[in-house]
Amino acid sequence: MNTVITKSNEVRVYDPDYAVLAISDIGDCIVITDSGEIIVNQGNPITWPADATDGMQAIVDVKAGTLRFAYDGWPRAHTEFVVSNYVEDSAPVHVLDLIKEWPTDGTRPAVLVSPPGFSWRHHDGGVWSLCGMNGDSEFFEGHWLNYHENKKKYAAPITGTKHDHGKPILGAVPPHAELAVGRVLTFGAEKYARGNWDKVEDHENRYMDAALRHLNAHRRGELTDSESGESHLAHAACCILFMLDKQERS
């Protein structure tokens, strides 16, 4: 595979047979082979190293977003270029990707543009085909249509569906406060019994009083309850949650 870096700092990967075909669409770019040799340096934007010349060896570390140029000399020199927009696992470009519209019988040969390495051939009945100059490939309109249809079919990611719009985002509950409330509930379950709070008579008044006592202690500067060792605010939150739960159920 050949690595192509565009003027916008985008890294693409192409099949070697078609890498050069895409240059006319891409514009200014550098093309680097698997072995690290720069085979095309078109435009040389000023953001690239000045010594990025044809034939220079380059090490492409696209995972780290770095293109490192190196040349033998004394002392041995290295120049790094940071790739800001690396697209991993880019699909190789097929020659059929370069054809935007298939010619018809009314198309004049003079206006047909052939991709490099290919030529258009006219057949009886107004049929056109795209032929490789080495004779190893020939594409008709049906191939072109099927190629793009399959590309659309398999391009969409296969993912599950979950309709969450309008539903509570429980993950937005502050985690540290949730943990503090959990510790107070654990203390209460060990002291009385799990779920005992739901059996308390005169529920509303008694938990309102308890919440106010804990809030009052906090206002006086007493941060933790002397019995549980937990925050008075966490105790008050538990009391409010008990009342809120009753209200929501009713």
Chain-wise SSE layout:
Layout: E1 2-6, E2 10-14, H1 16-19, H2 23-26, E3 29-32, E4 38-42, E5 57-61, E6 66-71, E7 77-82, E8 85-86, E9 118-123, E10 127-132, E11 138-140, H3 141-155, H4 175-191, H5 203-219, H6 232-249
Parallel strand pairs: 2-8
Antiparallel strand pairs: 1-2, 1-3, 3-4, 5-6, 6-7, 9-10, 10-11
Helix pairs in contact: 4-6, 5-6
Descriptive account of the structure:
The protein has about 250 residues and is an alpha+beta fold. It is elongated. Helix 4 (about 175-190) crosses helix 6 (about 230-250) and helix 5 (about 205-220) packs antiparallel against helix 6 (about 230-250). The strands form 3 sheets. It has a 5-stranded mixed sheet with strand order 4-3-1-2-8. It has a 3-stranded antiparallel sheet with strand order 5-6-7, with no helix packed on it. Strands 9-10-11 form a 3-stranded antiparallel sheet. The chain starts with a strand and ends with a helix. The longest helix is centred in the C-terminal third of the chain and has 18 residues, at about 230-250. A hairpin with a 4-residue loop joins strand 5 (about 55-60) and strand 6. It contains 6 helices and 11 strands. The chain has 3 domains: about 1-85, no CATH class; about 95-155, no CATH class; about 170-250.
